[in-house]
Design brief:
Pfam families: E1_dh
Protein name: Dehydrogenase E1 component domain-containing protein
Order of helices and strands: HHHH
Number of helices: 4
Keywords: Oxidoreductase
InterPro entries: DH_E1, THDP-binding
Strand content: under 5%
GO molecular function: oxidoreductase activity, acting on the aldehyde or oxo group of donors, disulfide as acceptor
Shape: elongated
Length: 100
């Protein structure tokens, strides 16, 4: 999907991913982008690093959410509705009053 998106943005490849005969389509796009001076090697490495980070985070999130007890922890908490809101200034004021 990333390959097809990059191809459509760059406009270098008109074939869909399923028709590409290359073994490594990512490397093919990398070479095309570099040969057309659309990005530098450093920019491509930065993009790859960012994508890997996002993928790693998605994998970690997927693993966490599959745990049998994860369900209740995956729902947002109505902090205000439950009276759990944290007003640090109010807490500090109450603590100072209690000390006096």
């Amino acid at each position: 999907m990333l390959f097809e998106l990059l191809c459509s943005i760059v406009g270098l490849v008109t074939k869909p991913l399923s028709l590409v005969k290359e073994r490594d389509p990512v490397e093919r796009i990398r070479k095309l982008v570099l040969s057309h001076d659309l990005a530098t090697e450093k920019e491509l490495k930065d993009i790859e690093k960012e994508v890997r980070k996002e993928v790693d985070e998605a994998i970690a999130q997927a693993k966490i959410t599959q745990h049998k007890w994860a369900g209740p922890f995956m729902q947002p908490v109505d902090v205000v509705g439950l009276g759990l809101h944290d007003d640090y200034e109010e807490k500090r004021r109450k603590e100072e009053e209690a000390e006096m």
